[in-house]
Structures are given as C-alpha cells and as structure tokens.
C-alpha cells in the first residue's frame, strides 16, 4: 500500500469510497474514470480526469503533477504578473496533487466516474501555502492546538435559467429567461416548475456523500437554494466546491444554466451565509454554558467583528461581490451582531448544542476555504485577546450608526494588505498572494468599458 492510500482523517459517511471499494468497482467495470481535483483561488474545481487503470497502476503510487500557474491566473485563466510562487521568470514549474482519500466519492451524475480531492504540495512535498485548502487546514491546526474543532455549514443561492450556457454566452448573458417569473420564496408551486433539476441536484449530491437537507425557492426570479447539513469545516468546504461544480454540470445536462454570481441583476443577489460553531476536540460544548453564551463564544464573535473590515477580501473576493451590499437587501451593510437579526452582518442563532453564528457577508461567489479560514482566524484573534463583545444591535442595522462594511474591492484590498492580524494568522506569502489577486481583478475591471457606460453615454454625452 502506498503512503498516498492512507486517509489523513476519517471518511464522513459510508457513501464515500475506500480505496479497496474503488479497486473493486474498477475491476468490475463500474468505474473507468477517476477525477483528481483541487480548489483554486477563485473557488473552482480544477484537475485531471485519469483513466481508472492508470490511476491504480501509476498515479496511486507515484502521484501526478500540474503546472503551478493554476494558482497564479485570473478567472479567465490568463497568466498574470505579481505572483512570486509562479511566473515566467521562475519557469512555471510543477506542483504535486496529493490526494486526500477521505474525500473519495462517486459522481453519479457522470458515467462511471469517481473523484478524489487533493492538497497541493511542491515536489519536495512541502505544502503550497497559498492553496486555499492549505490555508483552511492551517487555521484548523491552530484550533487543534487549543483543543478545539470547527463545524460549519454553507448556504448557497443560485439563479437558474431556461437558457443553456452556450445560449447565455451568445446572448452576452443578458435577456435570459429565468426558470420562474416571480418571487418563489418558500413557494411549493414555484419550485415544482423546476423540480426535475432540483431533484437531480439533491439526489446526485446525496450519492456523492453530501448530507442534503432540502431545496427552497428564493426571492429573485428563478432563484433557489439547496441546503446541506453542517459538518466539520474541511468537509463542508470540500463538499461546497464539489456541489457548485456538480450543480452546473447537472444544469447543463438539463439544457439550463445556473449562476452563483453574487449580483446578477438589480434584484436580490446570491448569498452564501456561513454558519460556524466550535466544539472541543473531545466533543464538549464551547459556545454554551449553563443557560447562556460562553465567554469563548463572545470573544469569538468579537474577533470576527473586529477583523471583518480587514478580512472582507476573503469574504467578498470579486468586483461584483460588493454590488450585493445594499440597504434593505438582506445582504449586510453594517458591522454588527444581533440575535436572529437578518439585518446584521453576524446573526446568532440556536442555543445549547445548536448555538452558532451566521456570517451573512459572503456571496455565492465566495471561496469557502478562504472564508471559513478567515472566520476562524478572526475568532481566534478574539479568543486569544479576550476581546469584549460590543452590545447587541436591535432593530434595523441598515439605519444604525455602526461601522459600514467595505463597499469596494479596492477598499477591502487595502484593509487586507495592511492588516497585521492577517499577516500573523496567514503569513506574508498568503497576504501578498491574495492582495495580488485583488490587484489583478481591479486592473481588469478598470480597463473594461461596461454596458452601463455605453448605454448612458453613447448618444447623450
């Protein structure tokens, strides 16, 4: 047995595969393709499709590599300047895909296919510290050192269209037909119209090892959400990335398109609320004692609020992300917390074993590894310094005098780049890497001429 075959953590449930089960499925001809995948800076699954026999005979023992430019490109896969780990000057060398076999699963929406998610390491087997999965694992290790473990759930919204992705491209992503023509928030009639798609996504997600809760309509036309049970933070981030790619692939098979863009139009944006709680590594409650919140919980919340300005880049990584932050939109504009208050950036829900905080800042375009890592790093900042929790905001946070969340990517970039807390938690290499990612996106947007500019000024200026 190769060292690659030893899982570094337990398999979440029996719908995941063991190596021996995979061998049997391949031998019986039920699996002929193994996908090696990792999550890139933009939160996308990237990787290779390997023939199953090659995977067993070669890759399982010797591993496989990919170009390190995969963590140094923009969203259109253009090589860009400013990344110290990967450049023309460094020759664009390789990094190794290191499978985590606790993520091995079948993808039933694709013929005879299994997938394993990977960490990224250099050829000398040292971690690629800029990799999102490594960034999250580093924060989880910091929790473990304190006898703590993180559990999380992500709530992803999307808008579905009756157009294919190819048609959407040809229409320049405008004038598309949403699968619903009115607000279907909690509407059973509205969701039944798109139930063939939603059902396929739910069932294939369950078969891939995810614990599916259900589906519901949302407010924007054609907007829906499929919910999943919480899990340990790394499993949640892994599943988030698989679900997002899988949902797009299933939609394409239905001749439809879905978007996780944070703000597709002037109506409600697509959010990704992140629920997070801590337990002791022995399972003990840490956020609750007797009949109320623990001091640890309050310090953790205080730390997330104290770092929200400096860490917003990891919650809202794109130009478009900031279009969500509008008063009265159910997306937060105020750095404050409240009990079951959806106008605040941080909403506290549950009590006892279910006590958790909900970060309402991220949109559906978020990279889950980076956002959860930021929440843990911020919370640990609060715990380590025993930060005092400010008073609860009651009423309408949109009209309060509390500090506002950053309103542009440029402001968020400056906060992250200048953050001593970020450098202490993530390291200078990570801060420089993701600051450059923001610089690349800002420069690309500043060079673009938008539809708004043409419509507003072509004739009238």
From TrEMBL:
Signal peptide: none annotated. Keywords: ATP-binding, Ligase, Nucleotide-binding. It is an enzyme of class 6 (ligase). SUPFAM superfamilies: Glutamine synthetase, N-terminal domain, Glutamine synthetase/guanido kinase. Its EC number is 6.3.1.-. GO terms for molecular function: ATP binding; glutamine synthetase activity. GO terms for biological process: biogenic amine catabolic process; biogenic amine metabolic process; glutamine biosynthetic process. InterPro entries: Gln_synt_N, Gln_synt_N_sf, Gln_synth/guanido_kin_cat_dom, Gln_synth_cat_dom. Coiled coil: none annotated. Residues 132-461 form the GS catalytic domain. Belongs to the glutamine synthetase family. This is Glutamine synthetase family protein. It comes from Nakamurella sp. A5-74. The lineage of its organism: Bacteria, Bacillati, Actinomycetota, Actinomycetes, Nakamurellales.
């Amino acid at each position: 047995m190769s060292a690659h075959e030893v899982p570094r953590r337990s398999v979440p449930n029996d719908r995941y595969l063991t190596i021996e089960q995979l061998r049997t499925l391949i031998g019986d001809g039920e699996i002929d393709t193994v996908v090696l995948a990792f999550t890139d800076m933009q939160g996308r699954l990237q990787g290779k499709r390997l023939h199953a026999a090659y995977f067993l005979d070669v890759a399982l023992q010797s591993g496989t590599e990919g170009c390190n430019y995969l963590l140094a490109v923009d969203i259109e896969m253009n090589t860009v300047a400013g990344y110290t780990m990967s450049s023309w000057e460094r020759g664009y060398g390789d990094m190794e895909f290191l499978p985590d076999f606790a993520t091995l699963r079948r993808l039933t929406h694709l013929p005879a296919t299994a997938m394993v998610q990977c960490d990224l390491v250099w050829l000398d087997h040292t971690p690629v510290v800029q990799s999102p999965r490594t960034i999250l694992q580093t924060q989880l290790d910091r929790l473990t050192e304190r006898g703590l473990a993180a559990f999380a759930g992500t709530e992803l919204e999307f808008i579905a269209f009756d157009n294919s992705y190819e048609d959407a491209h040809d229409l320049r992503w405008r004038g598309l037909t949403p699968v619903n023509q009115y607000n279907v928030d909690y509407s059973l009639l509205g969701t039944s119209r798109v139930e063939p798609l939603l059902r396929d996504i739910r069932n294939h997600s369950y078969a891939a090892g995810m614990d599916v809760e259900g589906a519901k309509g949302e407010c924007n036309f054609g907007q829906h959400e499929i919910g999943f049970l919480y899990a340990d933070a790394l499993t949640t981030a892994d599943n988030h990335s698989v679900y997002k790619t899988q949902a797009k692939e299933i939609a394409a098979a239905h001749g439809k398109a879905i978007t996780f863009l944070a703000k597709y139009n002037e109506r409600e944006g697509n959010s990704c609320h992140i629920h997070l709680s801590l337990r002791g590594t022995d399972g003990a409650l840490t956020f609750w004692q007797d009949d109320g919140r623990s001091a640890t919980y309050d310090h953790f919340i205080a730390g997330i609020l104290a770092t929200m300005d400096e860490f917003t880049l990891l919650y809202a990584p794109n130009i478009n992300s900031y279009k969500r932050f509008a008063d009265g939109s159910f997306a937060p504009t105020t750095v404050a917390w409240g009990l079951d208050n959806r106008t605040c950036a941080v909403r506290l829900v549950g009590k006892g074993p279910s006590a958790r905080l909900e970060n309402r800042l991220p949109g559906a375009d978020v990279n889950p590894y980076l956002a959860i890592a930021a929440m843990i790093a911020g919370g640990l900042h609060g715990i380590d310094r025993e930060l005092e929790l400010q008073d609860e905001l009651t009423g309408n946070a949109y009209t309060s005098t509390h500090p506002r969340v950053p309103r542009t990517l440029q402001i968020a970039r400056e906060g992250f780049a200048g953050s001593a807390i970020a450098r202490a938690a993530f390291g200078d290499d990570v801060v420089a890497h993701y600051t450059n990612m923001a610089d690349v996106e800002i420069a690309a947007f500043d060079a673009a001429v938008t539809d708004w500019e043409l419509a507003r000024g072509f004739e009238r200026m």
